[in-house]
Amino acid sequence: MLEAASANTQLVPLIGLFYPRLAELGSFSHCTTEECPPAYRAMLDHEKHMTVTVEHRHKDSVDVDVLACKQNETHYMRKILLRLQADRRVVLFGIVRLALDTLQPQVRDEILSQGIPLGRVLIA
For the structural domain made of 50-124, what CATH number should be given? Predict the structure, then answer.
């Protein structure tokens, strides 16, 4: 897990892409890996794509709902929900920022189409 200062340095700018005030989204506090309950730790502290982790946890595929997106010359940013296909239940809220120049054209185009969860595009 990230150290508190590093986590805050990374969290605030990411949330700020869609929420001018951090409090609009919620309140946040740092916890160590050991302080995080095992079920949450399994979802947050891993080396896999979040899509894969969520689908494994819920034993169902997910669809993405893009709530908002932004793009500039260098980055694509989006605020999303992942929903289980079986019952449409929301299982993840997320914000992501991607450097467009790091993506192959076909991958970039699939991501920009906004119809496929990011993890599924990146591991295809």
Answer: 3.40.1410.10
